[in-house]
Structure of Glutamate receptor:
Amino acid sequence: MKLAFALVLALYLGLFSTALCRNISSRPSIVNIGAVFAFNSTIGRVMNVAIDAAVDDVNSDPSVLKGSKLVVTKSDTNCDGFLGTIEVLQFMETDIVAVVGPQCSTIAHIISYIANELHVPLLSFATDPTLSSIQFPFFVRSTQNDLFQMTAIAEMVDYYQWRQVIAIYVDDEYGRNGIAALGDELAERRCKISYKAVFSPVATPSDILDLLVSVALMESRIIVLHANPTFGKIVFSVANRLKMMGNGYVWIATDWLSSFLDTYSPLPSETMNNMQGVLTLRQHTADTKMKSALVSNWKMLTKKYSNAVFGLNAYGLYAYDAVWAVAKALDAFFDDGGVISFSNDTRLKEANGSNLHLEALSIFDGGNLLRDEIRKINFTGVTGQFQFDSDGFLIHPAYDIINIIGSGSRIIGYWSNYSGLSVVPPETLYSKPSNHSLANNQLHSVIWPGETTEKPRGWSFPYNAKELRIGVPNRVGFREFVSKDPTTNTVKGYCIDVFTSAVALLPYAVPYKFIPFGNGHQNPNYYELVNMVALNVFDAVVGDIAIVTNRTKLVDYTQPYIESGLVVLAPVKKRTSNAWAFLQPFKLGMWCITALSFFIVGAVIWILEHRINDDFRGPPKKQLVTIFWFSFSTLFFAHRENTVSTLGRAVLLIWLFVVLIIQSSYTASLTSILTVQQLSSPIKGIYSLIAGDEPIGFQVGSFAENYMVEELGISRSRLKPLGSPQEYANALELGPENGGVAAVVDERPYIELFLAKECRFSIIGSEFTKSGWGFVFPRDSPLAVDMSTAILRLSENGDLQRIHDKWLTNEVCRSETNEIDSERLHLSSFWGLFLICGVACFVALAIHFFIMLRRFIRHTPPDDSEPSVGGLSRSGRSIKKFFSFVDEREEEPKRRSTQRQAQRPTSNVVVDIES
Ligand SMILES: *[C@@H]1O[C@H](CO)[C@@H](O)[C@H](O)[C@H]1NC(C)=O
Ligand SMILES: *[C@@H]1O[C@H](CO)[C@@H](O)[C@H](O)[C@H]1NC(C)=O
Ligand SMILES: *[C@@H]1O[C@H](CO)[C@@H](O)[C@H](O)[C@H]1NC(C)=O
Ligand SMILES: *[C@@H]1O[C@H](CO)[C@@H](O)[C@H](O)[C@H]1NC(C)=O
Ligand SMILES: *[C@@H]1O[C@H](CO)[C@@H](O)[C@H](O)[C@H]1NC(C)=O
Ligand SMILES: *[C@@H]1O[C@H](CO)[C@@H](O)[C@H](O)[C@H]1NC(C)=O
Ligand SMILES: *[C@@H]1O[C@H](CO)[C@@H](O)[C@H](O)[C@H]1NC(C)=O
């Protein structure tokens, strides 16, 4: 790098064929520089002394300019554009190589054009961020750019979580461009300047009074004052008179105030009283030995050079260093072979006829080289390390943040471009990695205007609007949410209760009045209602306002206070259990397999048992009956036949277990079929609804209409507006065939309220959108943020649920008679069983009597000879005989069995003994 630089240098020298000997001989005995500033200003007075002191120090140090003497010519521009320009032009006629100053941004803009033409570097103290070294290559800012000061203010505003500030400033380059930078920096942190209060550079105190009255009417209470000491003092005294220096206000003054305080302190107590609690910034300079030497000599220096005593401010320090920078740059300039020579400006020759003698202005031939030397300067001065970065900014921009308390001030922290707000001086942070995160930012506590340490809220209700005008939808259907009471003309409902409870939690009083919106015959259009806030007809809207994208573009929402989302409501039919419900638990296959298993198990047991078990013996017909009887009686664990073989018992045991499982499953399934409500609807959810072509209902005014058309692609002709719960019920009842609707799409809270009274309908599927309801405030309203916090607190302490329970209910279909009804079982579910049983009885009886009749006929042949006795006909006698036959035959097996028992008493005993 150095080698390349030397090469370029050698080339440069070679090209201009300047002999090396010129190195020494080119140093003149006197080098003229200029100084341009407003002599009678706060900064100018200090600069005057600092420049003189620096020039003397340079001239008394032989190592700097090595014999050449620095001579400074001063010019008073007085910050006046016209006079300043003339002054500067006049003294540019004397051959000067560099200018220290100007201090005024207005003058700096004008002089920069002249410096560009004449190649004279300006070491300016103008802080206007728009003065760039790209447009003005000879403009070198030897103080901090206001861009950084405004960044510091924006970071403070962000740190204290304020969102809007009011800027009061002078309408000149300094004020306007500084505040423009503040606006940019605030916007980066999602804050903004809500009002720009601007006064003219020739404003009178009464103008300022009018201005501050308009500021007081604003909502924001954060005021950034970017002015100069003359106006600043007036602003503070007027503000104090208007009680704007009291509780709730925050004043942030830019560095003009710290310079003023540093220069003239101690100030009269009256002036200090006007600015208690004000925050101001000061360009941060490191505490070095050189700085403390200058500070300790300062009193003597002011007496020596200006015959007065005043303090040293940051601009004085930068002015002192600027002179040294020029001297060191000139030294390097001479070292690098620069010569001080001037040439006539050909462009000015045409003006030779005028009496102004502008042709006397000449171009400094070495201007470019000197400017480059200044840009490359690197030394430690009274302001710390004095060095420019590649963009022409002084390195390490940093500010002290000062709180004015009592008769003095206190540093509450620092801001540096390197690591944001901190309570330790920035020098200690430069060695650590840069950490700009908000969490890392820290400031000491502040005593705010009104002598409070509590951080001001930053805004208040504007004086001009006495009460918040709160729009409230005047609902027609679902009046529980919010509606106007026609008798008392007040609004009430769930949403109103939530709002009043939330407002009660705010740490300050909010005056408001509700204004119903809607014609009372139809629910209002919610989009229009919300738009009223954007149009400033209402200051807020309270009601069942869904948070949807369409509206978030217009307004700010609070946190949702109730969950919502669109659902499909459709009529459902209870699937009634019919007479053959007892067959439903098993499918046909199951019934068949179960029946088959009974036969198989019966047969298996018979095979295993019949050789050793008397119960399974007998005539084949009887054995067949035993098989069936045995296997089916296991169904009820009522089999009487003993199983004696081990294998038979094993099979039976397993079979009984299978039967147990089948039986209990059947019972459970049948129970649920008979007692649990089975609901059914042809619509299965939103997607089956979209696919169909039946009409769909929606609530008048709801966003559901647009949502279905735009997001779901449902044709608008299918949508049918419905105004009230009654209309919902009617339209659903009628069904799509009769001019009703197949389903209603609406938000869950409404539907839940609807279902609390209506049992014939149900929500189909789940919510297909997720959202919530919130209150509406204008964009960036600070009240919206506080209301959100209050709503979250309501939710956390359970009040939100209590309000919900008071107005709405979560139960679905509360009708009591219905509930009991649904648990009782009707005959209709069972008549099939009774029928089967009845038929079985009848068939059994019929077969029985048929057999009896056959036997009767066989045993008693017809007796024709017997005459009729006692009035009984012949057939009558036959019936009598038949019944006595039945009676007789019934007794016969009994008699026979007792005979049998009597015949073989011994065998019976043997069996008993055996068993
Ligand atoms: C200097 O400014 C003060 C006010 O700050 C004023 O009273 C005084 O007249 C001014 N002097 C000159 C010479 O302009
Ligand atoms: C000019 O002279 C100085 C000493 O006075 C010397 O350090 C420097 O290198 C010289 N420069 C050139 C270009 O000869
Ligand atoms: C510059 O112009 C002045 C007259 O205005 C003249 O006297 C002088 O010789 C000129 N210098 C050069 C280098 O042309
Ligand atoms: C100066 O102006 C006069 C006329 O006013 C003109 O004749 C003369 O050429 C001009 N001189 C130069 C150097 O342009
Ligand atoms: C400037 O000087 C300091 C020491 O005074 C040194 O640490 C730093 O590297 C120098 N910067 C440049 C760019 O030369
Ligand atoms: C200020 O900080 C920004 C970002 O941290 C950085 O890009 C910029 O170079 C810094 N400027 C100076 C003069 O240090
Ligand atoms: C929002 O919806 C309304 C209808 O409710 C419509 O008129 C308006 O154009 C929509 N706005 C945007 C930004 O989509």
Remarks:
- The radius of gyration is 52 Å.
- Residues 581-677 form one domain.
